[in-house]
Structure formats: C-alpha cells, structure tokens
TrEMBL record:
Domain named Enoyl reductase (ER): residues: 11-326
Organism: Streptomyces koyangensis
Top-level taxonomic group: Bacteria
The protein, known as: Zinc-dependent alcohol dehydrogenase family protein
Keyword field: NADP, Oxidoreductase
Length: 330
C-alpha cells in the first residue's frame, strides 16, 4: 500500500490526513516516484486554506516538490528509468498531481535527474526556491553586476535563494526581516546588508547603503500597502517584482507622481516552469550552481510524513530560516 496526504475540506492543518491507497500505475508520459523527502512551500498552506490562486478539488492531494527514486515509468518516457534518483519540479497544478506521499505519480516533464551524492532532503529543497529566484533575477537579464537588489521577507527559502542568486550575478543583496533575531543568520547566508523593518526605515536605510541611488530591483512576496514603501527605495527605471501575497490586503500600484518612474509587475515561478525553453534554461542554471557549490539550499528543520499537520503549523508560525522538509521513511 502507498500512503498519501489528502484533505476533504479547506481549513487548518488538522484537515490533512495520511491515508493508505493502492499504488497507481503510471500512464503515458507519467512516472511513479518513491518519495524520500518533500519540500514544503507557502503555496501549499494557501491551497489547503482555499486562499490560493486556484481552488482545491476534493478529495485533494497537495505538494509541489519532492526527491526520491523512479519506481515505474509509463509509455513514452525514455529520459528516466527505474532506479534513477530524481527531483520533482513545480510544473503542475495540485488539482492534478501532488508530492505529499511515499509513492506518487508525476508527469515526466516535472521530474529531473538529481546527483546521486545530493541528499534527498537537500534535493527536495532546491527547485521551487531557486527557479523562482532564477526567473526573477536571471532570466529577464535586468540585474547586472554591481546592482543593488532588495529582497524582502528574506529568511524564507526563496529569499535565501535570491541572496545566493544575486551574489552569483555579482549584484549586492540587501535583505529585510521583521525580526532582529534573524539578522545574523541572513548576514551569514550572504546578505551584504540586513534591514530590520520593525526597527529601521527601509527607504532611509536603502538610501544610506546605496549612496542615494536606490536599488535596481526589489523582490517582494508580501504585497499589500507596503509596496508603496518599497517603491521609495527603488532607483528611477528600476523594477518591483511582487511574487506572493503574504499580506492579503489590496496591493496599490505605486503612484507615478510620488515616486521615480519604475516598472511594477507580479511574477510567478510558473512563468518559467510552464515554458519548456525557459524551464530548460532554469534547470541548466540551477544544475550548474549545484555542481559548483553556488546553489546550497538552507534547511531549517525536518518533520516525519506522519507529522505533516505539525509541519504546516510550524510553517504558519513564520519562525523558520530556510526550507521546511518532510522526510518519508520506508
């Protein structure tokens, strides 16, 4: 029997149930993965709450990331074989597939080979964060060596990946966090500067750090009214990328009469993962970073699959620095 996590109604972590089911055979273009580790993402919490950009269909699985080994392949799958160590990329909707389980079906185009010497826990913590950072900072080609990049809510897995990606470009990452207790960890992670937003004014500190020039790019998962403050810190012609909605309040468009001209847009990793050419470039970029040690996901803590509800509660507490990973015993 296989074990999968499902829920029958939207709600808190308590709606998640670990259920036994017969393993399914992969269909054409699919494969089955024996899961060893799962990377958790804020998107899954929002999906469970029915606060994501598409609603769940019940009973629903969930999960975008995992690492494990190929158990079976369907017709038309030739790139991977049984026994190959692999990682799962977020290319699909959670209404169609999910990674929360010990044996799951996946579309073959969502699965990539992983280095045999990369531990499953690390491999499960890579792709959502680093493809998000790649698509925001590398693929558009706007961020150049020497540019300042403002990374808000930087203690999350995407924030830490954006710090590493900025350094790889040669840019200067400026991290923000609400908690002074996270400052030292962000500096250790490579941030050139850390602004504690509960104690410091973001535009004033950015002006001080950049000598009055402002940042070329701000990468923000929070949204809400705070984007007006971020806009004050962006240089003329710079860009504000909003890739999340941690603040559910309406997000204003910065007023061109109040701020220098800048580009403001929303961004989602699916711009990369649903475009085969972009995805291929992103995978190559991340793979080369893994090989060269420039991609090094930070794992905050791990939970057992049986404790998936506790893992979601921990994520909702917002105390983590880096990725929360669920391990799957066999």
């Amino acid at each position: 029997m296989a074990r999968i996590v499902q829920f029958d109604t939207a709600g808190g972590p308590e709606v998640l149930e670990l259920r036994e089911t017969d393993p399914r055979s992969p269909g054409p273009g699919e494969l089955r993965v024996r899961v060893d580790a799962i990377g958790l993402n804020r998107a899954e919490v929002m999906y469970r709450e029915d606060a994501y950009f598409y609603p769940p269909t019940f009973p629903s699985g969930l999960g975008y990331e995992a690492a494990g080994v190929v158990e079976a392949v369907g017709d038309g799958v030739s790139r991977l074989a049984v026994g190959d160590p692999v990682s799962v990329l977020p290319t699909f909707l959670q209404t169609e597939y999910g990674t929360y389980g010990d044996s799951v079906l996946m579309p073959a185009d969502a699965v990539v080979a992983r280095p045999a010497d990369l531990a499953p826990e690390k491999a499960a913590a890579v792709w959502m964060a680093y493809l998000t950072a790649y698509g925001a900072l590398v693929e558009p080609g706007r961020v150049r060596p020497g540019d300042h990049v403002l990374i808000t809510a930087a203690s999350g897995s995407v924030g830490l990946a954006a710090i590493q990606t900025s350094l790889r470009i040669g840019a200067v990452p400026i991290a923000t966090t609400r908690s002074a207790g996270k400052k030292a960890r962000l500096l250790e992670a490579g941030a050139a500067h850390v602004i504690v937003t509960d104690e410091e004014d973001v535009p004033d500190r950015v002006e001080e750090i950049t000598g009055g020039e402002g940042v070329a790019t701000a990468l923000d998962p929070v949204a809400g009214p705070g984007v007006d403050t971020l806009a004050e810190a962006i240089s003329p012609g710079g860009e504000l990328l909003v890739y999340g909605a941690l603040d559910p309040r309406p997000t204003p468009l910065p007023n061109a009469q109040s701020f220098p001209a800048l580009s403001t847009r929303t961004y989602a990793v699916f711009e990369i993962t649903t475009d085969p050419a972009r995805l291929a470039r992103g995978v190559a970029y991340v793979d080369s970073g893994l090989a060269g040690g420039m991609v090094d996901p930070v794992i905050d803590t791990t939970f057992d699959l049986a404790d998936i509800a506790d893992a979601h509660r921990y994520m909702e507490g917002n105390s983590q620095i880096g990725k929360i990973v669920v391990t799957v015993p066999h």
